[in-house]
Amino acid sequence: MTSIETVRAYIAAVETFDEAAAFALLHPQMRFHELPNRIRPKGGVDDLEAMRAGFRRAAEGTVLRAQRYILGEVIDAGDRVVVEARWEGDLVVPVGKLQPGDQLVAHLCMVVRLEGGLIIEQRNYDCYEDFTAA
């Protein structure tokens, strides 16, 4: 599998909350870097264990009914793949001015680094559309 195919398969698995498929593509030393954004204002770095816990919470469907990644540019840059995408999450609960059934939307840039065919690092630059109460 090429680096781009690996990243596309990973994103598809995350999109459908397929834990087994997603985590099969991750290196044991995986680190997920989330830059500061409206959902996680201070940003943070998660290891594989924290990622798995967050993934399982998301898969419970208590916040999102479904999510979609609409991929734009996907660029192979050696041991890195750069992805521009639009993310849409169908809400189950109110978030700011958004109500259940509305979509929370973010414009993303993901920089994914691979080692030995597995994803070892992901840096997300998530720009959420305004959802704050008026």
UniProtKB/TrEMBL annotation:
Q: Which residues cross the membrane?
A: none
Which Pfam families has this protein been placed in? SnoaL_2
User: Which InterPro entries has this protein been placed in?
Assistant: NTF2-like_dom_sf, SnoaL-like
Top-level division of the source organism's lineage:
Bacteria
Signal peptide, first to last residue: none
Q: Where is the SnoaL-like domain?
A: 7-121
Q: In its UniProt entry, what is this protein called?
A: Nuclear transport factor 2 family protein
Annotated source species: Devosia oryziradicis
